[in-house]
Every structure is written in structure tokens, then in C-alpha cells.
């Protein structure tokens, strides 16, 4: 069966198993490969994600414009004192690291896009570090995320130019929330609810890159997307059922994106892109 039609079909196909297993099986069939081969490829994806975190945490990293770079290192140093706790502190630092790696022309995994590349790896790698999940378990979570991303891409959009940043960072948060839910022992239905909560709470987020570059406010939205994914997963894992099913909310994302003015869809003409600061690098004043 195709897994990009609806979350409902995906959950039904998973049954008492997992979305990850369905996604792995479907991808192997689609590409005429053994499941072990597609799993090995996903292990390679995980390796690239780790490398992008390491690269992005370099304190000397800077984009060509100078707008971003080195800020993930600051967040990483602050992580032990983060108000949301050290786990969230480490996760948001990693999210910014991957996003800064992308802005500085480093190698990243589009998850689902380059502009939203930090949310999924940061969340999964931090939970692996915190709870001791194996690489195989994290790879399964990546398959879960991929399946959810395919559904959203099919029903709505993952393009900022088409649907605003809700389609990029919102989708990344939804993919991550579902992946986290399954990684931590949740059912496929819980993963679907986690997806619904993440999409619901990111509706209307515009795409307004300053200077037309994937730097500001993109890297900061990756940071916020991690918190959104974690809280969405926690609501579902706590047993809270979304009052709107995931497919309804994804369809709402499509409608909201279609209604968005062109100036708020990656044209660099509205929102933060139209601010007078215009990309001037602000620095902390000396004490």
C-alpha cells in the first residue's frame, strides 16, 4: 500500500506494530530492495545528521553574510542552565547547530527541507543521549518521521514558497513529534496525535527569510520547532487524544497555506524580511 495518502491509513496499516515497520517495508518494496538495505541507507542518514551537529557547534562557524554562525556554540554552553532543563537545552543547541551548518554551506539532511533541517536530528540525538536508545531504534524513528513527512507532502506541502514556514518547520516538528512518540513506546495512534498537535500549533507560520536567505529567522525557528515537537509528543504519550485528527489538521495546513499572501511565502517581502533591520548583524553590547 501507499503510505503517503493519509495518517489514518498509515495508523491502520501499522496495526499493533509500528509506523516505522510499515515505512521500512513500503520503501523497500517501492525501490525493489531488501529491508536491510534501506535500513543501512537510513543509518548513513543518521551519520550525516551527527556530523552536521558537530560541524554546527564550531564556535568559529560563520555564514557568508555574518548573520548567523557561532550561536549554537553559545546555546550549547548555556545548556546546563537552560530554563527548560538541560535536555531541552542540549536539543535546542543541536537544532541551531544543524541549521547554522546549513546556512554556512555545510552538509545536512533535508528533514524535510534544508530550512527545517535541525529539528528532527536534534530531538532524536538528544533523546538517544539521554535515554540510551540504540542507533537501530533511532533509525526506526527516522522511518516513522519519513512516513509522516510523505503524508504531509502529499496532502499539503513541505515548501515554504507554497505553504509558508508551517510547511517547513511545522512539518519537521510534526515528523519529529510522531517519531519521538514511537521511539518512546507510544502506539501508532499516539504518533498520529503527536503529529496533529505539532501541526495544529504551527498553523499560520509564515516564510519570511531576511534577504531571501535561509538564515534569519530560519535558524531560530528550528530552535522553537524542537520545543514544539517535544511538547506535542508528550501530550500524546500522556494519553491526550487530539480533538482533531491528523488528516483534518494537515488539510487545514493546506488551506491556510493557500490563503497566505504571496509576500509571506518565501518572497522576502513580508514579515521579518520587511523589518528595517534588514539583516544587520546585532551584537551584545559590552558591559
Structural class: mainly alpha
Oligomerization state of this entry? single chain
- Classify the helix fraction into a percent range: 55-70%
Strands, total number: 0
List keywords for this structure.
single chain; mainly alpha; about 290 residues; globular; 12 helices
Protein described:
The chain is mainly alpha-helical. It has 12 helices and no strands. The mean pLDDT is 95.
Blueprint of the fold:
Layout: H1 7-14, H2 19-30, H3 35-56, H4 71-78, H5 86-103, H6 119-131, H7 135-155, H8 160-163, H9 169-183, H10 188-200, H11 218-237, H12 246-259
Short structural description:
The protein is mostly helical and 287 residues long. The protein has helices at 7-14, 19-30, 35-56, 71-78, 86-103, 119-131, 135-155, 160-163, 169-183, 188-200, 218-237, 246-259. The N and C termini lie far apart (62 Å).
